[in-house]
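Data deposition worksheet. Section B asks for the primary sequence of the deposited chain exactly as it was used as input, without tags or linkers unless they were present during the calculation. Section C holds the resulting structure in token form. Section D is free text for depositor observations; keep each observation to a single sentence. Incomplete worksheets are returned to the depositor.
Section A, Depositor: J.P.
Section B:
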Amino acid sequence: MVTMPQTKPDTWTFLSNHTHVLLCLYRDPDCLLREVAIEVGITERAVQRILAELEAAGVVKRKKIGRRNRYSIKKTAKLRHPIEAHRNVSDLLDFVN
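Section C:
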């Protein structure tokens, strides 16, 4: 008989880290990636990777202002999974906020 590993109830969330990073940038477009990492609970390197993926998908745009970055979100971008592809980023942000 195969037994499934026990999962602690607090080891998963309904939203992905991509969504968490997106929400942090939406709430504070001038935040430091270090702050996002702390808020989401992942490494700064993971935030950088996620941000690169969001930028490549055209969901987030980075603008350099002096030594800092400001992030803007393309709210009209469609969600990527076929189940929610009829919705856009704005719908997700409105729902969670």
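Section D:
The two ends are 44 Å apart (CA to CA).
The helical segments are 17-27, 33-40, 44-56, 89-96.
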